[in-house]
Amino acid sequence: METEQRSPRTAPAADRAARRAVTLFPVLVLTAGALGLAVPDAFTGHGEQVPYLLGVVMFLMGLTMTGKDFQGVVRRPWAVGLGLVAHYVIMPGLGWLVAHALGLSPQLAAGVILVGCAPSGTASNVVTYLARGDVALSVSVATVSTVVAPLVTPPLTLLLAGEYLPVDTGSMMTDILKTVLLPVCAGLLVRLFAGRWVDRVLGALPWLSALTVALIVAIVVAGSAEALKSAAALVLLAVVLHNGLGLALGYGAGKLARLGAPASRAMAFEVGMQNSGLAASLASAHFSPLAALPAAVFSVWHNISGALVAAWMAHRGRAAPAGD
């Protein structure tokens, strides 16, 4: 879903394409999760492929990026810095609070917290666009949160989830570098030196990413199919609370800092939407398939909630263009 995210346009055709992607992506992921639950034997032997599949997603993300995606950081360092701090304070803290409030098992608690410690989600930019938010700010915060993830996600996970399960920060940092930062950089380089050819296939990249993320979800769900059947309601409640509070507090942080309505909408999605594919990959590798379930459910839910909130914000924005 990165093509529209990185280069949102105001033309009606682009708007329809973005809406179609946001609508169909959660349906695709939900279908994949249902398949993983219904026929787990078809996916259970592929758990070791999850990091490589995530690397494919991040490489495709890199292909859609250009130097313009980094210019906003220089132009508006205060707003980008605020978004970065809000993201890595609010969501990890909420993950810890939700895990404690619901009395989650150590595996599920660690999984929820790890989701909170992940960088911004790959759909946040296009949802910001649909909400008539500040897309430039959204892109800048998402980009920086991804770049700093190797340095921030492991220690935060140790701090908040260490009471539940052992956390090897060094190994986790290496995994994030290999599965996130290096593929993104590789994609950037390919775009830089072969941009003419990449431009020809940009329209297909969002769907390749969506299919890959869906496959990750199917594998993760299949790995703990029996556990999910007994804990589905609890995991869904944890995810809905985590995501919903993140969206609300992210928006509130923007309003409190007087960034304006469009920037506050961007803050809502940059805080509340997570890179759940990364969280699922790390949970599977460092904890267990059960710990990856919150990330799999989050992958479905935050796209549904994001699309709904974006539609509501866009409606409010049209009714009151001067502010929310």
Automatic annotation (TrEMBL):
Transmembrane segments: 21-43, 49-66, 78-102, 108-128, 135-156, 176-194, 201-225, 231-254
Membrane topology: Multi-pass membrane protein
Keyword Transmembrane annotated: yes
Main location, first listed in the record: membrane
Keyword Cytoplasm recorded: no
Lineage: superkingdom: Bacteria
Keywords: Membrane, Transmembrane, Transmembrane helix
Subcellular location: Membrane
Pfam family name, one: SBF
PANTHER family documented for this protein: P3 PROTEIN-RELATED, SODIUM-BILE ACID COTRANSPORTER
Name of the molecule in the record: Bile acid:sodium symporter family protein
Organism: Streptomyces physcomitrii
